[in-house]
Amino acid sequence: MTERMDRQFARLRDEGRPALVTFVMGGDPDYETSLAILKRLPAAGADVIEVGMPFSDPMADGPAIQAAGLRALRAGQSLAKTIAMVDEFRKHDSDTPIVMMGYYNPIYVYGVERFLSDAKQAGVDGLIIVDLPPEMDEELCVPALKADLNFVRLATPTTDDARLPAVLANTSGFVYYVSMTGITGASIANTTAVGEAVTRIKRHTQLPVCVGFGVKTAEQARVIGRDADGVVVGTAIVQAIANTLDGDNKATSDTVEAVATLVGGLAAGVRASRLEAAE
Amino acid sequence: MNKPVEPNSFRTGPDEQGMFGIFGGRFVAETLMPLILDLQEKWEEAKNDPSFRAELDSLNAHYTGRPSPLYFAERLTEHLGGAKIYFKRDELNHTGSHKINNCLGQILLARRMGKTRIIAETGAGQHGVASATVAARFGYPCHVYMGATDVERQAPNVFRMKLLGAEVTPVMSGHGTLKDAMNEALRDWVTNVESTYYLIGTAAGPHPYPEMVRDFQSVIGNETKEQLMAAEGRLPDMLVAAVGGGSNAIGLFYPFLDDKDVQIVGVEAGGKGLEGEEHCASLTAGAPGVLHGNRTYLLQDGDGQIKEGHSISAGLDYPGIGPEHSWLKETGRVEYVPIMDTEALEAFQLLCRVEGIIPALEPSHALAEVVKRAPKMGKDQTIVMNLCGRGDKDVFTVGKHLGFEL
User: Fold this and answer.
1) B27, A108: Cβ pair inside 8 Å?
2) What are the positions of the active site (chain A) (predicted)?
3) pLDDT digits (tens, 9 = 90+) for B163-174
């Protein structure tokens, strides 16, 4: 539902700090561990959660998220199971917005109407679909908005001022600014340019603008969070999971804890980002 | 799926959204979208610019060696005892396959767009070689992504690319074949979008690539029409071509799509048989889905995860197909059939012995279908088959299958 997302960003605005948006791949390294991580995230400091829908051919993702998707698929994850995970999560948490992120094909094959109805039922708040630009809005974006699900669009450094209105037209929930031309997990070269881009986008929209791709540390989260309404961290979390796995890519007793520790640090980062600015 | 109403013309697609019926489109990340729109604009300009056409025609004639001959395969015709068989000999082109037709067109476009770097994906290596060739000819750095499995089984082509100055990156992800190479090329493109031109090798990918590649390859069909008219005074009864991504096939088929009396057959890689997992027959055994920028028939499971295909021919080893072929299948204009690895191998050897031509394994699939169909047709009828690549690159693979030490 779109209301939970708006409520969360309004609350954070009142608190005077950016959101920490965390990405985890649904079903990585297995369904149970992934669900345990999901449940742990809000208490660790996540304000919005992106749940990745694993896909065999993630064209916009770097090696870490590619590997996470493959681990999940090998452990038997499917789109139906990712929806079920959200449903389980909602039994324990009715405040933290959940955005499902991935590629279009699994949804297309599942059936758009059936997917929207099941996702809505499970308590999903929004969708980010990497390979659906505004030119393809009739496929999923328009039906999702009709079903009262946010459709969060990606804006990138190549989205110029002329194109921005088209990108923002059907966007809701928040705008996801991709900090660089590149794939997930690469390094941000220029945080000043990111700040300028966020300011540019904000001239075109009232929606919160969150920045992702390449944010890995609490320090980066703090700096990006000065201008952005939210900071998205994905690869670093997925890598933290990978670092705790045993030789067979199975979860260990450290897996959930490692994520909680990392997210705790990132949460402190975003909470510090406006303090200095106010000084 | 319901069969769509037959259109008045099969040569009007794609529409302004880049769709052929429900197939095609522009399913790409936002980072690439402004570039895709720019490409489309430049392509529209180029195709209406007589100087662009003139330069391409000149290169086709003097660099590639076009028109390629339309050859009457007399001995094979006698051997099969039915329809007269003609080969469109695109294997005689510079670089040894039809791939050069498309590469020359796209490199001229890259230059027009002011790009400074070329990337390409390749399966069998034919497109990689053709890309490296045109990059050398026009002075561009070229980076080719090739699945690690293919690097191993197509070693001679890897060396050719390196000789031509290209950098070849083996792709380890997935099964290390064409699909994975294409993923990696897309990742490079999204990273280096400002400087880089992605030279896609087949009539697939986001709009306008399927249309653009088709138009560059249509030189095959246009020449064939003229040449057969000169030889026989009429249109062929049947066209046959192999389909992997489908660029040589659409190049031959497209100029004939509205000639309703011409029967058209596309041949997919049936691998080790359609009942198992080891084949690449996306049209015969796949389902519509979205991958690599377009909606088309794909080999995939019930969860929309893409499967790895298998074919003895690295050039047919792709789990998708150009979107226009998906539409031509749905409309019923073109018939698509599978040919097994073993049938292709037999056809390969037959052509060597009967006509003194060593074909690539890709057109050997088309040939195996010709072998099935020609005897059932009248001696006054004609078949044109696209002999789209030569077999030098495949002798090691074939040798291995025949138990021959090389």
Assistant:
1) no
2) 50 (proton acceptor), 61 (proton acceptor)
3) 999 999 999 987
Rounded-to-integer distance, Cα B135 and Cα B163, Å: 12
Please give the Cα distance from A149 to A1 (Å, whole number): 5
| Per-residue pLDDT, B5 | 65
CA–CA separation, A76 and B170 (whole Å) = 28
Spatial distance between the Cα atoms of A11 and A237, rounded to a whole number of angstroms = 25
Domains and CATH numbers, chain B: 62-96+217-402 (3.40.50.1100), 98-207 (3.40.50.1100)
Q: Domain span at residue A262?
A: 2-278
CB contacts, 8 Å: B305 with chain A: 55-56, 73, 106
SS3 for B51?
A: helix
Q: Establish whether the linkage from the previous residue to B363 is cis, with ω within 30° of 0.
A: no
Q: Which residues of A are catalytic?
A: 50, 61
Q: Identify any residues that bridge with A126 across adjacent strands, giving them in sequence order.
A: A99, A150
* CA pair distance A235, B401, nearest whole angstrom: 44
Can you spell out the DSSP letters for B91-108?
GGSTTSBTHHHHHHHHHH
Residue B69 reports pLDDT greater than 60? yes
Q: Are residues B268 and B341 in contact, defined by beta-carbon separation less than 8 angstroms?
A: no
- Output the pLDDT for position B2: 55
Helix axes A31-44, A79-90, angle to 10 degrees: 40
ipTM exceeding the 0.90 mark: yes
Query: Which residues are CB-neighbours of B391 under 8 A, at least 6 positions away?
Result: B348, B352, B358, B359, B360, B361, B364, B398
DSSP state of B390: B
Cα–Cα distances (Å) from A134 to A29, A129, A140, in that order, read: 33, 11, 10
Dihedral sign (CA B80, B82, B84, B88)? negative
Do B35 and A158 count as a contact with CB atoms less than 8 A apart? yes
**Average predicted confidence (pLDDT) for chain B:** 95
Does residue A279 register a pLDDT over 50? no
A106: nearest CB among B26, B187, B304: B304
In angstroms, rounded to a whole number, what is the distance separating the alpha carbons of residues A219 and A248? 33
**Helical residues (DSSP H) of B254-340, grouped into ranges:** 282-285, 323-331
Q: Backbone dihedral region of B176: left (phi > 0), alpha (psi from -120 to 50 degrees) or beta? A: left
Answer yes or no: do B191 and A181 touch at CB < 8 A.
yes
Ramachandran angles phi, psi of B360, nearest 5°: -70, 165
Backbone phi, psi, residue A118, to 5°: -70, -40
* d(CA B13, nearest CA chain A) in Å: 18
B303 inside 8 A of chain A by CB: yes
Distance from CA of A178 to the nearest CA of B (A): 9
For residue A261, the domain's CATH number is 3.20.20.70
Extended strands (E) in A117-276: 126-129, 150-151, 153-155, 175-178, 209-212, 230-233
- For residue A58, the distance in angstroms to the closest alpha carbon of chain B comes to 8
Measuring CA to CA, which residue among B188, B213, B208, B245 is closest to residue B106?
B213
pLDDT digits (tens, 9 = 90+) for B294-326: 999 999 999 999 998 888 988 888 899 999 999
Where helices occur in B254-392 by DSSP H, the ranges are 282-285, 323-331, 341-355, 361-373
Beta bridge partners of B385: B87, B240
C-alpha distance across the termini of chain B, in Å = 49
Q: Provide the domain count of chain A.
A: 1
* CA separation for the pair A170, B160 (Å, rounded): 49
CA neighbor of A245 nearest in space, from A233, A260, A261, A258: A258
Q: Cα A84–A85–A86 angle (5° rounding)?
A: 90
Tell me the two tokens of residue B114: 């002011």
